[in-house]
Amino acid sequence: MASSAVSLYLDPQIRDWVLFPITLVMILVGILRHYVVLLLQNPPKKQSKETIREQRALVRSQILRATSAFSPIAPTYYKSISQSLSQAYGDGSFLKDGPPKGEDKPAPPNPLTDPNAMDGMMAGMKTQMVMMVPQMVIMGWINFFFQGFVLIKLPFPLTLGFKSMLQRGIETHDMDVRWVSSLSWYFLNFFGLNGLYRVILGNDNAADGSRDMSTPFAAAAAAQPQPGQVQDYNKLYKAEQDNLEFSEGLYSWVAADVETRILKKYGRTI
Amino acid sequence: MEFTAALQKLGAYQPRSSPKSKEILRASLPLLQSGSIARRKGEAGWDGVETLMLAALDEGDVKTASDCLEVLHTKFQDSPRVDVLTGILMEVKESPKVALQYYQALLQEDSSNAAAWRRKASVLRQLGEIGEAVQELCAMLDTFYTEVEAWLELADMYSSCQQYDRALQTLSHALLLAPQNPLHVLHFAETAYLVPDIPLALKMFLQAVDMTDDDEQDGITPADTVPTGLALRSWFGVKLCTLKLTTEPRASSSASQTAPPTAAVLQSLDELVTERLRTAYLETTRESPPTAGPALVEAVAKIIPA
């Protein structure tokens, strides 16, 4: 093995004209991409108050239910709030388009025809384009000019399992695994530079390459809670009615026996 | 979240002179004049400008407030926060009517601006249009249910028109949203006393006592402590209720169908609260307190912090 360690000498020109340029280009492209994504992102759309009301209607009953086992409010007030909420859910008066008319329920709208949902998806696609295109260009550039280059020798030994990772593009069986090919150097940078971007651009940067791995649809879905599918609030309200009824059974007033509690606390007997 | 909280704060803002605002004004004014106020680190600097502006308004220094707003406006062109600040300054500088129109325009552009909505209600209240103010605030709370401060303001409006049962309903929402706050419980109890719904008030006063008095620790039982602050105010309320329940037989009727305490419980409660109030009185004034009910109430009323 001692002979194989010195069997290869790398021209310093490779270091100066291939290794450093690839690294530098990748860093710069990452930074550039971050700013392009910032430019492309349009501010989140303002929601109308009707939409907000529809979305937050469920919060009301959740707040009411959260304390129902030891509710701070007296039974009459609890009942009146609970019943008025239940009725409002039943009538659908929280829905932004008003209560549903008649028996025929409208089918949930197709997300692809809803312009609002479309916007969210388009934004995801645009970001993905900015991510993918430069990476493809760089990879093409490396493949075209530096195919089969050996760029660097790692200062530590590795097992043979790393061969496919470190020597992509070089079809030799007996070369030491420590030698890294140009295409593998590209991949190492691709995954390894995220830490550097985080230092340069801050935690929430758009240059993070690991996000490229997910499909555009998955990324769009992850970025925004529900841009694609439209929530059928009417259905959620109907379910919440049952929850309210259930909580009404659990209800107890925290002040129901407060007199005895206080008297006991101060050591008095009734 | 932080941004929403900042907007909520602005929505609830009322000019009020205080030593703190004087201090802020004194300390930050030279910074503004030298133009270095925003050069402090990042967001803290801009927050400082906003704080200074509100402090200047507290002290009635319109000139400084306008300068601050100008600084903020050049930096943040279309921030809803600056929009609301502009409105606040307008309320002070111009007539409330102008501010009202401004808020209406803001809301027309973005109907989900809760802070502007609240300010609109408060301007309407200043103009004396309580009915309209209540309507606006109700509509706002129907959309933004979780704004406790707005619920309290609405209850205050109802109370100012002697609509105490409406105020109670409003306060029960505030209680639901912040069940851990004894201040709201006390507020609820005092409003219930005004309705008057004495049994309900008594329970809520006792609940407030339970939340504010000291828990047993280091072998000192609650009975050995001296009630102060909120706890004293709650005890005072309990005393008022027991006094009413023992002297006026009709007081035990309750709109909320709360059962009044039995005679025995009432008796022990009255003894306990009398003892508590006498302890507090003795501790604050070093005088021997009166023993009888109404005289004690009058004496204790003087030592309760406002």
UniProtKB/TrEMBL annotation, chain A:
It is found in: Membrane. GO terms for biological process: protein folding in endoplasmic reticulum. Its main location: membrane. Keywords: Membrane, Transmembrane, Transmembrane helix. It comes from the Eukaryota. The keyword Transmembrane helix applies. InterPro entries: EMC3 (IPR008568), EMC3/TMCO1 (IPR002809). It is a multi-pass membrane protein. The chain crosses the membrane at residues 17-40, 130-152, 183-201. Residues 96-117 are annotated as: Disordered. GO terms for cellular component: EMC complex. PANTHER family: ER MEMBRANE PROTEIN COMPLEX SUBUNIT 3. Belongs to the EMC3 family. The EMC seems to be required for efficient folding of proteins in the endoplasmic reticulum (ER). This is ER membrane protein complex subunit 3. It comes from Phlebiopsis gigantea (strain 11061_1 CR5-6).
UniProtKB/TrEMBL annotation, chain B:
The keyword Endoplasmic reticulum applies. TPR repeats lie at residues 148-181. Keywords: Endoplasmic reticulum, Membrane, Repeat, TPR repeat. Pfam families: TPR_EMC2. Transmembrane segments: none annotated. InterPro entries: EMC2-like (IPR039856), TPR-like_helical_dom_sf (IPR011990), TPR_EMC2 (IPR055217), TPR_rpt (IPR019734). It is found in: Endoplasmic reticulum membrane. It comes from the Eukaryota. Coiled coil: none annotated. SUPFAM superfamilies: TPR-like. Residues 85-195 form the EMC2 TPR-like domain. It is a peripheral membrane protein. One of its GO terms (cellular component) is EMC complex. Part of the endoplasmic reticulum membrane protein complex (EMC) that enables the energy-independent insertion into endoplasmic reticulum membranes of newly synthesized membrane proteins. Component of the ER membrane protein complex (EMC). Belongs to the EMC2 family. This is ER membrane protein complex subunit 2.
